[in-house]
Amino acid sequence: MTTKMRSEIAEQPTALRATLDSLLPKIDEIRAMGEQTRQLLFIARGTSDNAAVYGRYLVEAHAGRLSALAAPSIATTYRRKLDLDGVLAVAISQSGRTEEIVETLAWAKDCGARTVGVTNGGEDSPLAQAADIALCTVAGEEKAVPATKTYTTQLAALAVLAIGLGADVDAGELRRVPEAVEKLIAEPGDIEAVVEGLADKQGVVVSGRGLAFSTALETALKLKEACYLHAMGLSYADLLHGPIAVVDADTPALLVAAEHSPTLQGTIALAERVVAAGAAAYTIGGGGALAQAGTAALNGPDLPEWLAPMGLIVPGQLLTEALARRLGIDPDAPRGLNKVTQTD
């Protein structure tokens, strides 16, 4: 029986094409708003927060704009008004109905920010209605609780946003993403070896750096949600500052890198260190060099680093779905979770 999660993973190339067709015409509108702002504030929770991490690295590395992740409780709990003049507030919500995110975007506007909403909830969703510009993804209904196609289309929307804000990238390369994702779905690498390696483990450390850090965080979240693993998502720089002590024969590492990235050599060195310490180092992406340094390898996309996270997450999604089934867990409906989460 094919799970809903597995079916929705397979729908990602179509969802990405539809989203790009819908959002690329908005670049001029984004550019006009970008001229009125200097820096960005990303507002999100959960999977959408991991998308925001990608947005932050992308905008800072390629558009030269200072960016930050918001603490929504400043708006909703502390109710503190800040000076957000010159700020572009970008709220991200799969449903567009998470009250905390909608309220925080409204707060940002009241504080002087210009606003963008990224959502799969459509133009009529509360988030889209609250934003100056709505970037509505076209992923279709997502029935499995773990987000897959809504996440990758959020990344696509943030790539379009970065282009509108003047990122020094080739916008035409975006059109390569759906095909790269299709290839990864067909050829993800040695999924079975990694599933077997994690099946009797209670925890795993998932690590990447730079633009791949968002993938490490999202992969760790998926393994927590659907496989009930104690999965720790960390930048490898933070991992080396102490938490690497938890990596041992009972706690393997899952290391993520784009093949064309200034962080690749550091990731390779980390894989070699983990293996030398007697632990397993499973890898995602990074080409043959990272695969050779690790214990078993999942493939990465043939994409430039700024787009690679849209592909790097796919083997992690497939791994999560396969591991959940191996553990006797229904990945479509993990315990304690709902599709839309409301927070105070």
Automatic annotation (TrEMBL):
Any one of the GO BP annotations: carbohydrate derivative metabolic process
Superkingdom per UniProt: Bacteria
UniProt xrefs under PANTHER family: AMINOTRANSFERASE-RELATED, GLUCOSAMINE--FRUCTOSE-6-PHOSPHATE AMINOTRANSFERASE, ISOMERIZING
Keywords for the protein's UniProt record, in alphabetical order: Aminotransferase, Repeat, Transferase
Species name: Nonomuraea thailandensis
Protein name stated in the entry: Glucosamine--fructose-6-phosphate aminotransferase (Isomerizing)
Span of domain SIS: 26-172, 194-334
CDD domains named among the record's database cross-references: SIS_GlmS_GlmD_1, SIS_GlmS_GlmD_2
Its EC number(s): 2.6.1.16
InterPro entries assigned to the protein according to its UniProt record, in alphabetical order: GlmS/AgaS_SIS, GlmS/FrlB_SIS, SIS_dom, SIS_dom_sf
Principal EC category: transferase
Pfam families: SIS (PF01380)
One GO molecular-function entry: glutamine-fructose-6-phosphate transaminase (isomerizing) activity
Native organism taxonomy: Bacteria, Bacillati, Actinomycetota, Actinomycetes, Streptosporangiales
